[in-house]
Amino acid sequence: MKIVYISDNNMFLCSDGKVTALPCERAEKYTDTVNEINKNKEWKHAGAGAMFREDIGYYADASKFVRINGVSAAKDDFIYSAVLGEMGAIYRKSADSPKAPEGHIYTGMNRNIGSIAYKNGRIAAILDGHLAIFDERGDYDELTDGHSSEDSPFWSATDDRIFCSTRGRALEGGSGYSASSILAVDESAGTIDTLFAEEGNDLLEPKNDADGNYYFIRQPYKQEKEAKEPIWKSVLLFPARLIKALFGFINAFTVLFGGEPLRKSQRKGDVKSKTKSPRELFFEERMREAEKNEKENAAAGDKNPSIFPRSRVLVRISPDETETILCKGVLDYTICSEGVICSNGKELLLISKDGSEKVIAKAELAEKLSVIN
Predict the structure, then answer these.
(1) Contact, 4 vs 71, CB < 8 A?
(2) Mean local confidence (pLDDT), 204-208
């Protein structure tokens, strides 16, 4: 069995339990080209002359502007979607010969290509937050629009409908979203129907199988809230923040031109604060949360405890509308002939049709799983 997936913005292939990284030719070419261009321009925007002209420039590594958003099996190969800087793209890649030249399907400036799904030469994709259908020449039709945001397209295993999750966006003065529900989009009939919706829960990653079972991930809905600092606190802290900012600027200036910091405890050449960056604090918090979830899941008796909350569950709805919880703490999943393959954040698990569970391979934060025939 071959499973292609994304983890930490990279593509991987799990073949018979062995995991290998897949090079992304287009991302590598984009990164090398942009970094070379920036390197050739860097001299104009660095040094004392540039500071005097107030023309200081900083070029980040171009790899920071690359995102791999989706993968989907396509016959014996697979396709993937990516955002390369300001360009959205879809490419075809061989799993058997990962270093072979990649096939081009679509590129578009100022377009964002998200999750994708392939079936019979057609690609359901999330284009700028809405559902679209591409052919293999790169031509496309947009199927949804308006004040909503779609995700996770999936071609029905029993007909030509496309399933996807959707959530409404706040119309005025906010960034909030409604809970996610599941749509069934029938292009030929021109209809869009709500397949599943639950008050208080997000329903994500919809799929079905040839036996008429529906699947999705359910998790408690949490309204996104904008963290706003009280006005009184901003007013009181303004003088202290202003002094801190001025001292930091002067300290960096003395290090740059004098070679020594104002703070003697600081090493030469190091103008970084001893405090941790927001990014470092964010990942530390996520690590603590993952460890906590894993301990709680193990204590609850889970055979292969997940690093995600047990409230995030994989649901199967049978043709007679019987609901079954297949897995708790699931990050993502896909359907295969033997049952369901789940990611619990640490491993890929096969949940067989008889309900048994076994580890396929170690795979950290595996998502967008797709089985290659």
Answers:
(1) yes
(2) 98
**Inter-residue contact 186 to 195 (CB < 8 Å):** no
Q: How far apart, in whole angstroms, are the C-alpha atoms of residue 93 and residue 100?
A: 8
Q: pTM for this one?
A: 0.81
H-type alpha helices, the chain: 25-42, 47-52, 231-258, 278-299
Taking the C-alpha atoms of residue 195 and residue 124, their distance in angstroms, rounded to an integer, is 18
Written as one string, the DSSP assignment of 289-356 is HHHHHHHHHHHTT-SS--SS-TTSEEEEE-TT--EEEEEES-SEEEEETTEEEEE-SSEEEEEETTS-
Task: Tell me the per-residue pLDDT of 214-223, one tens digit each, with 9 for 90 and over.
Answer: 999 999 998 7
Closest residue by Cα to residue 185 from 195, 170, 177, 175: 195
Identify whether the C-beta of residue 21 lies closer than 8 Å to the C-beta of residue 12. yes
User: What residue type is assigned to position 234 of the chain?
Assistant: S
Compute the CA torsion angle 253, 256, 257, 261 (nearest 10 deg): 70
Distance CA 234, CA 211 (A): 59
